Structure formats: C-alpha cells, structure tokens
Amino acid sequence: NPRDGTPGFNALTGQHDPWDENGHGTHLAGIIAAATDNGRGIAGVAWRAQLMVCKFIGSTVNGNISDAIACIEFARSNGAHILNLSWGNTEFSAAVSNALWAARADGIIIVAAAGNNAGNTDLIPYYPASLALDNMVAVGASTRTDERWSFSNYGLTSVDLFAPGAALHSTARSGDAAYESRNGSSMAAACVAGTLALMRQRWPEAAPAVAKDYAEIAWE
C-alpha cells in the first residue's frame, strides 16, 4: 500500500492485513517476485517487482464479487501496473467487467487464469479470463514437457497462451523457509504476470494491448 507502507488491502476486514489463510496467494507471490541470489528457495520471474496484495477470499476458498471489485479498485487507485487474477468461475459479472474496463482505461495490464475444469472455454466461458478485453491475457497451464496440464481449461479463441503450471515449486505460507509444489492455471498466470512486469520495466510506455502481444511472443 503506497499510502502507508502496509502490505496491501483485505476486503474481508476493510483493513490492510491481507494474511494468507490457505497458501494460494503466497505460492503465486513467490512465482512472481521471490528474491534471488540469497541462497534459499526459488527465484521469482520478476524478483525486483513490488507486490500489492489484495485479498477477498478467505479460508473457505470462496469470495464475493463485491469484494473482488473492491480489490480491483484498490489496486487501480493506488498505482498498480499489472493485475494478476488467479481466480474465477463460470458466472458472468457485468460489475467485474466494468471494473476491469476501468482498469484498462488506466493503462493496466490484466493476467487471468483460464481455470482448472479441463473444459473448452470457447463453449463454456470462465470469467474473468473469458472477458473480451485487449489488455487481458488469459492463461492456461502447461507441463514441463510443454503439453497442456490435464485439468487446465483450453480454448482456441478464449485462451491466449499456456505457461508453466504443473508441479511448480514456490513459497509456502507455513514459514519463511517453507516451500511447496502446486498445480494450476493460477500458477501459470503468475508466470505470465512476472514476465509482463519485466516487459513493463523495459518498455514502460507500451500500451497494454502491445504488452499482451509481447507476452504471447515470449511464451511461444
């Protein structure tokens, strides 16, 4: 949180205490920005990136659309450059779409997980990844042999690219020296978010739609 240096925002409490209750966010944070050259654990894709942690999902692994929008608005109003949206469902929300459209107008790049239902999102959309936004990259999960991870969603027109998302080793919530492996398009989205952070640093004036093209080239 650039206003007071706190870690970010917790929409469930209205405070700035986005403590991770299930490890999902901690794992993604490590993929994106874990420190390097420290002789421990892993190195994040963009290891000097700053993270603005915004929480709307608790220990039940469920969340409300209104809280998700509150997090998007917090990030947008506090200077975020890239939004990593490693969450979603099959229900369209006009309110979420409008919030992300506003983020687009502010020049923010959006990375969204394609989902883990092994489904074709051309036929059954998965939101927000299936929203038609030119500043959004919808990401499916691939294996280390560059095949689609079996549970990852896919779609010729609705999934932009695949990135590593199977058996990714990253930071765990149980301690400062804890690490674990997880699977999913969430992890793949984090890889792409880190890549885009590097590209945004290299080409800060590039339009979000151009950055999306760069990401697709990078992961081809």
Order of helices and strands: EHEHEHEEEEEHH
Q: Strand share of the residues? A: 15-25%
For the biggest sheet, the summary is: 4 strands, parallel
Identify the strand order in the major beta sheet. 3-4-5-6
Would you mind describing this structure in some detail?
The protein is 29% helix and 15% strand. Strand 7 and strand 8 form a beta hairpin. The longest helix is centred in the C-terminal third of the chain and has 18 residues, at 185-202. The strands form three sheets. A four-stranded parallel β-sheet has the order 3-4-5-6, with helices on both faces. It has a two-stranded parallel sheet with strand order 1-2. It has a two-stranded antiparallel sheet with strand order 7-8. By secondary structure, it is of the alpha/beta class.
Helix/strand layout:
Layout: E1 8-10, H1 24-33, E2 53-55, H2 65-77, E3 82-85, H3 94-105, E4 109-113, E5 136-142, E6 161-164, E7 168-171, E8 179-182, H4 185-202, H5 208-218
Helix pairs in contact: 1-4, 2-3, 4-5
List descriptors.
single chain; 220 residues; alpha/beta; 4-stranded parallel sheet; two-stranded parallel sheet; 5 helices; 29% helix
What is the compact description of this entry?
The chain is an alpha/beta fold. 29% of the residues lie in helices and 15% in strands.
